[in-house]
What does this fold into?
Amino acid sequence: MRIHDTALPEVKRVTLDKLSDTRGFFIERYHAEKFHALGITADFVQVNHSRSLPRVVRGLHFQHTPAQGKLVGVTRGAILDIAVDVRPGSASFGRHVAVELSEENAEMLWIPAGFAHGFCVLGDAAADVVYHMSALYAAAGESGIRFDDPALAIAWPYAREEAILSDRDAALPTLAAMQAHLTTWFESAR
It folds into this structure.
C-alpha cells in the first residue's frame, strides 16, 4: 500500500497492492496496522456498499454530528470521487479534489471529517462503491451541499440536466447558503 497527497493535505489517495494472475486478482482493501502506518488512524465502525447506474451523481454529503470520515473505494466500474473542504476557517474552505477511483486502478480516497463527499459514475457500466465510515450514520447529523454549486467550480462530466440525481440531492443548498450552519456544527464539535 502506498499513500499519496492530494491538493487538500488532509485528503489522501491510497494505492492498494493488486495481485493478478490468469485466475483474476486479489486486493487487501483494509488492514488496520498498514493503514495506521500510513497515517489513517480512524477506527471504522460501519461499512456501506452502494451500486449506481451510469450518469448517477451522489452528493455532496457530509455528517457533522457525530463528525464522520470516509474511506472510499470502488469494487466494480469507475467513479469520479470528490471531496470538498467545508470546515469554516480552514485555509482550504470551499476547495475540492477530484480523483478517479476504479476497480482497475485499485485506489481509495480517505476523506476525513469536515469534508463533503460526492461522486459520479464514469462510463457506461454501473459502479459499486464501498465506504468505510469512522462514525455510525446519524440522520439528524447529516447534511449536504449542491453538487454543481458554481462557487465550487467542480468539473463534473455531466451537466445537471444529464445527471441522475435523487430528489434530496437535487434540492441541496449551495455552500454559501450553508455557511452559518457549518460554523455552528463544526465549532460545537471542537
